[in-house]
Each structure stands twice: as structure tokens, then as C-alpha cells.
Amino acid sequence: MNKKFLISGGAGFIGSAVIRYIINNTSHSVVNVDNLTYAGNLDSLLSVENDPRYEFEKVDICNSKDIGLVLNKHKPDIIMHLAAESHVDRSIDSPRKFIETNILGTYVLLEQSKEYWLSLNDKKKNKFKFHHVSTDEVYGDLGQKDILFTEETPYAPSSPYAASKASSDHLVRAWHRTFNLPTLITNCSNNYGPYQFPEKLIPLMILNAIEGKPLPVYGNGRQVRDWLYVDDHAKALLLVALEGEIGSTYNIGGNNQLQNIEVVQILCDILDDLAPSKIDDIRHYKQLVTNVEDRAGHDLRYAIDATKITKDLNWKPDETFASGIKKTVKWYLENINWCDRVKDGSYQGERLGTSQS
Fold first, then answer.
1. Whose CA, among 202, 280, 281, 342, lies 20 to 30 Å from 320?
2. What is the CATH number of the domain that holds 23?
3. What is the domain count for the chain?
4. What is the pLDDT of residues 24-77, one digit of tens each?
5. Does the annotation mark 136 as catalytic?
6. Is 161 designated active site?
7. Which of 137, 226, 232, 299 is catalytic?
8. pLDDT tens, 276-289?
9. 281 inside domain
10. Which runs of consecutive H residues, i.e. helices, occur in 220-320?
11. Torsion of CA 187, 329, 285, 272, to 10 degrees
């Protein structure tokens, strides 16, 4: 049976990937609710914007009245909540926006979803779901130990961003426990792939390299992350939304633990092959690697144990890091115009920063 999804933050990196996947691979319909802050880019949805199963609403999730109107207008079957401030460096420089969007915004969406859910007839009410999309950063730092984040790992967020996401996770669980709102939570590892805002590690390194700019690596670059191709994540999110057990949490990871410096070196090797530098002084892109002062409170290691979603829902990533990263580099090389519109602000009027979350 076809479902109507309301996806908050659908113009963001992961949200747009979910929307493209749903529209291109299923018969479900989507309402994209996004306030189009700096990270929201409707250019990422040009391929589906004219599909009759896709609709867009420019709404701030912190605006209770507008959210209520959207819910009652579109009457979704499933809400997938991805809207969030997600740039760790920005959260360190200015935490307030993260508190407002990630905590207050989630509260508003939960409250309005509860009121909407309670207004439904029994048949539609029993099928409604609220799926909250979160991050592995809520678990904090694994350090060098040979352990993985599971769904039972205690929360220990390090950055203001991670703390705000941990808070939103707790709110979702509370609304399920107290009000019986049918909720699901997923916590993912680092995503990469096409259409990622160029302040993040992988697109930043690709674009800096081909422009002959320094490739800034925090500290010694030994921080370990588990890398998940964004389309694999989109498939997992849809699967959880449709088939996940109400009240459950699912960790989603790519099974690709790599140090940041290793990721940068892999990117340099691929770029040497696909787009050799035209600058005389640069024979290999690794020459551009530059160590910079480490981020405050930088976690050393994240790593996801995705056993539960694999066992319960039969999900596993299709892409290895080797296959996914090559697709990613090719996409950026073939879509420089998309990147240029982000970098010069013409997509919306906001210039980029940097990040290596």
C-alpha cells in the first residue's frame, strides 16, 4: 500500500537522498518540509521536483502553527524527521541555533505530530509512524578500544551538536513512553556521497584539491570514522520506516572504519588518476595535505555495530568504501556547477565553511 511521507529537512544532504530514492524507486509520495537554511539546497531535488508525487513546503519546524497546518493539509502516514543543524564546527562557534532547531524543533514536531495522530481515525492512527533520524555522535568517543556502538551504548555526547541530537533522541523516547506516540529512532555513522554540502570532509577535500588549495586535516588525522554511502542510508531509512518495530532504535553503519588521514590519501590517489592536477608544482595531490590545529573536544573514534538492522530487517550496505568513494569523486568532478553554486552562494546566498565531522 502506498504511503505519504512527510520528510523534514528534505532539502539537506541525507533528506534529499531519501526523497530521490523514494520517488525514483517506489510508488510512495513525499512532502518535503524544509526552511532552506544554508544547508538546504533545492538544486539537489531538480530531478524529482516535477514529479506529481513530490510536494515542497517551506516551513520552519520551530513554528508550531505552520507545522500543524502542514500536517493537517497533507495528512502524512509517516513522518521522517531529518531537519537538524549538523555541522560540528558551527555548533562549537555558535551553539544556540543547534539548541533551537535540534531540541526545540524536535519538541514542536513531536507535539504537533501527537495532536495530528490523536485526530486520526483508528485505521489511519494504527498505521502512523514518527521516525527520528539521529547520529552515532550521541554515543561519544570510543577511543582506541576494539568495541562498537550498539543500540544499548550509553549516551556521552562531546560537542554541542552531539548533545543537541542526544536531547532530541530522549524527547522522542519520552513521547513514545508517555504519550504512546508510535516512534522509531535510527543512529547513523558518517555519510558521504553526491550532493553533500562542501563544508564536510570528503567534498571539501575533492574541491580544494582540484583547485590546488591546501587539504586541511585536523591534528594528526588519526580520528576514526565509520563511513556510510548516503544511498545505502536512504534505503535503510525507508526500510526502518516501513518495517521497523515501533519503539525501537536501529544503528546504521557502513562497516568502513577509516582514519581521516586515510580517507584524504584515498581521495588524493583517486583524483591523481581521474583528474591529474594541471598546476605545474603539484605532481600528486598528497602534496597539499596540511595539518591544522585539532578541533576542540574532537572525538577519536566512532564505529557502528549494525547487527540489529541486518538481523531484524535484512539490511546491509551495497557499497564498499572503495566503490562508494569512487562514485562520489566522479559525481563531484561531473557536477562542478552544483558545487560552484553552493560555494558562491548563488544557490541561496550563503557561503560555505569547513568541517571534518
1. 342
2. 3.40.50.720
3. 1
4. 999 999 999 999 988 899 999 999 999 999 999 999 999 999 999 999 999 999
5. yes
6. yes
7. 137
8. 998 989 999 999 99
9. no
10. 230-243, 260-274, 307-313
11. 140
